[in-house]
Amino acid sequence: MYFVNSQEYDKYTQDDLSVWKTLFERQMKMLPNLAEDDFLHGVRTIQFTANKIPDFKELDQILGKETGWGITPVTGLIPNKEFFELLKAKRFPSSSWFRKLSELDYLEEPDMFHDIFGHVPLLTNADFCKYLEKMSVIALKYIENEHIIELISRLYWYTVEFGLIQTEHGLRIYGAGILSSKGESEYSLFSDVPERADFNVLEILKTPYIKDKFQTKYWVIKNYSDLTDSLDELDQLLSQINDGSLIVN
Ligand SMILES: [Fe+2]
C-alpha cells in the first residue's frame, strides 16, 4: 500500500529524542492521577521510557503477545478504507515523525508522540482492541457511503480520541487525543466549561467533532465493554440511516 513506510529508526535526531523525552516526562508526571489505570498499566507493559524513542519492531513483539495487535508505520493521515482495513487486521497505523522541539504544543497532524504514546498503551487491553476491530468491520460495510463514514468517525473521535471513563477512583481519561495533550488532560476533567454526558451512541452520531480547539462535550463510559456492547446498536442505527428511515446530520 502506497502510504505504508518504515520507521527508519536510525534516522532519528537528538531533537526527536528531546521531543519524545520532554513530552513523555511531562505527561507521565501528570497522568498517574488523570489517566485510566489500564492505560497506565499499558505504558509499563510496553516499556515506554523517557530516554528511548519507541521502536515499532519491539512494540510489535510486546503487543503481539498481549493482544495480537501491531503497529504499521504510515506516511500521515490515510484514506478511510485503508485506515479501517488496517484496524480490522489488528494493525494500528502510526506516523513515525516528531513535532518540532520549538512547537511542542502545536500540531497540524498527529505525530508519533500522539499516535504511539496516546494510542498504543490501550492496545494491550483486549476489550478495547475488540472495539476497534468490530467498529472497523462495520465501517468497511459502509465504506462507499461518505455520510455514514463521517458518522462512524464521530464515534471514533468521541471514544478512541476523546473518551472519558468513570472509575472507582473517579473520572479518568482513556482518549488518546486528550492523553497526548497537556492542556486538554486537565481541561477535560476539571474545567467547568465542557459538558460531560453518559455514553450514548445516537447522541454521538449527531455531534460533529471539533478539530482545532478543545472539545465542548465529552462522553463518559463505565468500562471498555460498554464500547464493544454499543456496536450492535451502532450497526442497527446505521442500517436505518442507510435505508432512510432515520435521519442524522
Ligand atoms: Fe489519534
Short summary:
This protein is of the alpha/beta class. 49% of the residues lie in helices and 10% in strands. It has a single domain (9-243), classed as Orthogonal Bundle (Phenylalanine Hydroxylase).
Low-confidence stretches: none
The spatial strand order of the largest sheet comes to 4-3-6-5
Radius of gyration: 18 Å
Count of alpha and pi helical runs: 12
Question: Structural class from helices and strands?
Answer: alpha/beta
Strand content: 5-15%
> What portion of residues is helical?
40-55%
Tally of strands? 6
- Write the H/E string, N to C: HHHEHEHHHEEHHEHEHH
Ligand list = fe (ii) ion
CATH fold label: Phenylalanine Hydroxylase
Distance between the termini: 33 Å
Q: Which architecture name does CATH use?
A: Orthogonal Bundle
The fourth-level CATH homologous superfamily is Aromatic amino acid hydroxylase
Number of domains: 1
Mean pLDDT: 95
The largest β sheet comes out as:
4 strands, mixed
